[in-house]
Amino acid sequence: MLTTTGGFSGFSVDDLERATAFYRDTLGLKVMSDSMGLRLNVTGGAPVFVYEKPNHVPATFTVLNLEVPDIDVAVDELSAAGVKLEIYPGTNQDERGIARGRAANRGPDIAWFLDPAGNILSVLQG
Length: 126
Description:
This protein is of the alpha+beta class. It has a single domain, classed as Roll (2,3-Dihydroxybiphenyl 1,2-Dioxygenase, domain 1). It is 17% helix and 32% strand. The protein has helices at 16-26, 71-80, and strands at 9-13, 30-33, 38-41, 48-52, 62-67, 85-86, 99-100, 109-114, 120-125. Strands 5, 6, 7, 8 and 9 form a five-stranded mixed beta sheet that branches. Strands 1-4-3-2 form a four-stranded mixed beta sheet, with helices on one face. Strand 2 and strand 3 form a beta hairpin. The protein is globular. This is VOC family protein. It comes from Lysinimonas soli. Residues 4-126 form the VOC domain. Pfam families: Glyoxalase.
């Protein structure tokens, strides 16, 4: 069995300066910089490492899920900050971009958006 002392996830971006501004100023996350990249401190979760990669290609899956107490408030806050929500065919999203899984007992309420590097992020409740 593997013995560990901790863990974290990570993903790449094409521009650390833009990523810092987005994660710190737009999303309001705690961002710490070091010589290797950024460390995002997400309340209640393990740190997330973000690093610059010259040939970055955005992930085709959600790289970061942010749990929120109220999905409607979170979507309002994102929209007010200029963040555009993504609409994905087949996800039964409402006009605001929220897939409401809790009402149908099919998972969380979730809404997706992109960071400046094109990575997929989400806010979710439940």
